[in-house]
Each structure stands twice: as C-alpha cells, then as structure tokens.
Amino acid sequence: MTIYSCAVKKYVPEDELLLDSYNLEIKVDSAAVVEDVDLLKAELEKAISPVPNTKVLGLRPGLHYYYKVNVDSAGWFRKFMNKKIGEAPVYLSDVEEESTRDLIRNRLENRGFFFSNISSTVERNEDAKEATVGYQVNLPQPYTLETYQVDRDSIPFYDVLEEQVQSSPIQKGSRFDLSAMKLERERIDQNFKEKGYYNFNSGFLIFQADTNRYDNRKFDLFLKLKKDVPSKAVKPYRIKEINVYPHNIVGADSVAQDTTRFDNKNYIQDVEFFRVDRLDPFITLREGDLYSPEKSKATSRRLGSIGAYKFVNIEYTEVDSILNDSVNYLEANIYLSPLNKRAIRAELQGVTKSNDFAGPSLGLTFSNRNLFKGGEVLNLSAKAAYEVQIASNSQAGLTSTEFALGADLIFPRVIAPISFDSDVFEYSIPKTIISAEANLLNRSKLYGLLTFSGSFGYIWQANKYVTHEFDPIAINYVNLLYQSEEFDAILNDNAFLRTSFDQQFISGLNYSFTYNGMLRSNRKSLFFVNSNVDIAGNSISLLAQEGDPDPDGEVRDEFLGLEYAQYAKVDVDFRYHFITGKEQRIATRLFAGIGLPYGNSDVMPFSKQYFSGGAYSVRAFRTRSLGPGTYAPPATDNRSFFDQSGNLRLEANVEYRFPIFGYVKGAFFADAGNVWNTTNNGLPGGKFSGNFYNELGIGAGAGLRVDVQGFVIRFDLAAPLHDPSLPDGDRWVNDFANPVFNFAIGYPF
C-alpha cells in the first residue's frame, strides 16, 4: 500500500496537484423554507466534474498502473492491469470552476431556485500533492405553485386534459421543478395510452409558467397541446380484430393456414400446434376494447410464461376508418414463435465441498414441450455423481456414489376439483406441477439410502415481486438399505440420531412465500423475504393403524406398514441490501427457523433438520459442523461424514461487496449462527436456552468473486472468532492462521 501511495505522488508534475475530492456545502436563507435538501444536494453533486481518480481503501490503483505504464517502462502484468483499471490523472488544472458554477446554477433554476448565490474555494496540500475544491450554495426561497390548470386553447381536448390535471401529483405549493413536469407529461401520456389514445405521445404536451400575477415567488402553471397535433393523436382506438398465430416460424416460407374462430379471436395455424381453448385464457385482449399497453404487456407476459414459446410479438395495424368518426380502429396480430419441441441438456460439474468431498457429477435432462398441445412440459432427468472424501482419517465414508431419476410434468394452468376463471389471476396464470424422483445414495462402508419423493402443487406469481408455491401433497419415503457396523455404532451412541432415521414415511403439505425486491434496480434499499411452512402427518394420521412395539417398548402408528413422521416446521429468510455506490453494496441476511415434532414423532426426521456451517451459512466453520449448541465432537472422532443437526436455527450475515477490476469483485464479511435442539434428547450441550447468544459461532473473512453476467464463481476465506464448542470463557479465538476455504457457485445471500 505504501508503494502505491509513493508511486502516485512522485509522478505528479511540479506545477500540478491531484484532484482529491469535492466538497459541496448548501446553506438555506433564514427566510426560506426548503424541503428535501439532501436529495437536492445529491442531484447537484452529479453536476460537478471532472470526477477524481477512483480510490480503493484510500489508494488509487488505477492511477498507479497508469503512471507505471505511461511514464516508466512496465512489464506485461502492469500493462494488463492498466488496460483493465488504469485511469489518466485528474489534476486541479482540469477543473473549470466557473463552468461548474454555471451548471449548478442551471440545475437549481430547473428546480425553482432562481437568483442563487454560488461560490467556490480551493484547498491545496502541497506536501500530499492534492487539492480539494469546495462549492458553496446559498438557497433562496424557491418559486412555488399557486394554480395548475389547462389552457383553454386546448378545446376540444380540454375536458380530457382537465381530468388528468385533477388527479395530478403536482399540487398547490409544489416547487417549480422541470423534472417533475417531465414526469407529469409521461404520466399523462401513459394514462392516455390506457384510454386508447394509440398515437398520442408526451411530446404533444407543453407547460407554460406565469409569474406576472405575483411578487412573492409564486407562479401559475398552464398545460396545453402543441399546435398542429395530428387529429388521429387525439382520437381513441379500439381493437377491431385479433389474429393469433400459434405456430409462427420466423423466416419460414408462408404456407396455407386454417383459421379457427374462438372467443371472438382468429387462431391461424397450418396444423393444430396448440389447442385454441388452452391458449385463449392467456390472452387478455378483447375485440371492441380500447387499446391498452398494460393489457398488451399482460398478454405478452402470460404467453411467455407458458414455456413453449421463444418469442412473443404483438403488432398493431391501423384500420382505415371514416375521417369524421370519433373512434379509430386497430388490428392486433399476435405472433408466437415456438421453442424446439424436444431438447436434451447435459451438465458436467466438478464439485468441491467444505466437508472434504470432491468429485464429478453428470446430469442429463430431456424436455418435451407442448406435450398435449396445451403448453405442457415434461422433464425427465437423470443424475450420477461420484465423490471422494479427500481429507478424512477414517476409512469409512471415503467414497460416495449417487444415482437419481426424476420426472416433472408441468401444466400451465390450474388442475383442481374447483374450476377457476383465468381472469382471477391478473398477473399470471398458476402452473400445476407433478414431480417424482428416486434417489440412491451409497456411502461406502457406512450405509445405503434409497429415497422416493413425489409432490403435487402449484406455483404462481401474484405480481413482479411476489411468488407463491403451494404443494397440498408432498410425500417422501426413505429406506435405509443397509448399514455397516461402524454406522450402527454411531446410531447406538446417539438415540436421537437413530430415531431421526427410523421414521421413513413423510406425508404433508408445503407452502412458500417469496418477495423479491432485489428486482427494483432503481432503489438504494432492496429487500428479499422467503418464508416456508411445512406440515406433515396430520391427514395421514386419520388412516393410520397402531404398529408393533419397538425394542424400547414404544408403540407408534403406521401407514401401510411404515412408521410416519408428524411435525410442523416454519422458517423465514430475510435479506436487506443497501447500495452504497456503483457496484458497491452492504448485504445483510437474517434466518430463523424451527421445527417441532409432535404426535407420532419425538424428533424431526433427519432430512428435515437444520444444519449450520459452510459456504452458504457461517463460513468460518465447515459444512454441517457447527453445533448443535455447544456440542463438541470427540477429539478421536475424525468422521467428517457425521452431520451435526438440530430443529432450531438462527443465523445472521453481513457482507460489504465492491468491484476490483472487470469481472472480479471483492467482499469482506462476518457471519454468526448455530443450530440447537428444543429437547434434551439430542447431543450434549445442544439444547436451546436463554444463553443462546453466547453459543453462536462467529467468523469473519474476505472473498473474491468472478461475476460474468450474473454467473458467479465464489472463493471465500473465513476464520472463526467465537467457537461455541470450546469451554465457556475460552470461546473467543483469533485463528486467522488456519482459515476455512469455501468454494461455491452464486452469492451466499
């Protein structure tokens, strides 16, 4: 770091100073009343130029490499870095104070502050070869609105404009603001489009401000139409005809096509590619309706969500009409270009896990789209994986093989005993998903596990940000095919773990709510919430029969000869991101979850328990190695395959993300969390108590991320700061010499 600083300073010419920063000071006249001064300051700062050289942790790496390449003879690495992040120096002599003051004055006048007093100063630091430029702004009383009305010259369009003015956010007392007027024109234009004015645009509207009636900085605002606006621009349009092309092949030769009339629409296709009664509910346009951009967007969005089409294109053509007619007409043509009906996708991955397993994974997926000519999609998948435990001292569990076969059948509509009108779902039509999977996991010299799972449920978007998933039927069957003597000894040592494997049958329902505010890219504060509810065993208990006593004499109910699980589980994942600058943000996350067994279960099934530690959790601890509570594995037990679990989980994470160069990003982070059990029948020290805050695993570290258009490869190094497995009083540690390495795909939160 010292080298960077000295290298930059020594290259600054004798008669120059580097521009270090700007200071903008805003004062308000004592007689003035000004709101949102901070927002105004942020806007004025954007007008100040040139921008000083970029700093990272107080240093200027871009300027450093520029000097090394352009002044000294540099090697290939410095030339490469200069090409990626190099910046030419910005000197005090590059600053044009008068032009900047004029630009600030113009911005202020655009926002109602006329006759502002603006000055500038320069602070020089000859020793550091740096300078800071300051701008001082004294704000007078701004001009405020007295009346907002439509100019009578806009007759016969006066009534239509007057209706818009009455509902305007610009009200008496509003500050004169050109940007607000621009937004007002866009608002009116959008509203006119929704009322059918197909050929109207915001450029036809003009504002005139008049201050002649007042001497106390007030003004009247008049809205009017420009002269020579085309007559068709002030006439509404209705849809006269709708033509739908369900099998439009871009670039293909035209062939004779049949037309089917259905629900006042023309469906035109050479063969029946898509059943018209299945396609029609996705189209919100209706003959005779006024033209509406929102309905066009809704139709395009709904058709695109089917999963059978690559492109959805809606084109409008004006239909000749009588000149003196009060309404004009449009013809709507909907062109749907299909995806390939069949597709095969292969994925070959190299997997490295924090629990010392590594190996290749091969996945194949065959997709058949529009299976029954109603937009149905059938996905058949197969997966094979082989992993080796490369850092274990135990001979057991050295290898792991996994084979899986699965099928998903997706219907782009609701399949239920009760019929639903498609108009009930305004944003999108729910999908019905039927899934089934068989998975065989073999841990060498430990156990073999066969799992069957199936579900029937629905997924739909309530709007752009909210998604619901509801599976009224969710079934899992787990069969422990075999177990070695060593694994049997593990189960015998831990009755809690053995019981969690005993209940092989899980039948219940799941519900998930997701709000993804991260899509609001124009905001500084972004939120994400995901909440899940999982309830099992209630309905199946009505059909259950009493089973045989177990070795401990306990009797549990069974269904079809299988002991079933009964529990309720709920968790919530809350994330908040604050944008601090270009490609910079502070990302935070809170997770809380609890599962409570009852009725036929004493403990949660092993597959439904919580785990802590790893690349997406508390990164200073290896995957599934943290907790429960203060539990510490025996020092002689090197079996890293033994996952440590609980039925309650709390975690908190914070991360500062920043750009380094190009696709390479950096991060500093801290994590805290653990899992616990709510009863005493788990591992020693694992029960949740009021002292839980002293049992949190805490770690901190830094990471590098390669982010190529949303595909992220992540490398994190983290060291524990607080280890709950150590004796009370010795838990605060500083083991930065032995950090935990995490490799993962995607951001952790």
Give a short summary of the structure.
The protein is built from 11 helices and 30 strands.
Write the layout of secondary structure elements.
Blueprint: H1 2-10, E1 18-28, H2 37-45, H3 61-70, H4 76-85, H5 97-110, E2 117-125, E3 130-139, E4 144-150, H6 158-166, H7 178-194, E5 205-210, E6 218-225, E7 237-245, E8 258-262, E9 265-269, H8 276-279, H9 293-304, E10 309-319, E11 328-338, E12 342-352, E13 357-369, E14 377-389, E15 399-411, E16 431-443, E17 447-461, E18 466-483, H10 485-493, H11 495-502, E19 505-516, E20 525-536, E21 545-546, E22 557-559, E23 562-563, E24 567-581, E25 584-597, E26 648-661, E27 664-676, E28 697-708, E29 711-722, E30 740-745
Parallel strand pairs: 1-3, 4-6, 7-9, 7-11
Antiparallel strand pairs: 2-3, 5-6, 8-9, 10-11, 12-13, 13-14, 14-15, 15-16, 16-17, 17-18, 18-19, 19-20, 20-24, 21-22, 22-23, 24-25, 25-26, 26-27, 27-28, 28-29, 29-30
Helix pairs in contact: 1-3, 3-4, 10-11
Question: What Rg is obtained from the alpha carbons, in whole angstroms?
Answer: 33 Å
Low-pLDDT segments, ≥5 res: 1-5, 391-397
First-last Cα distance: 31 Å
Biggest beta sheet attributes = 16 strands, antiparallel
Please supply descriptive tags for the structure shown above.
single chain; mainly beta; 16-stranded antiparallel β-sheet; 30 strands; globular
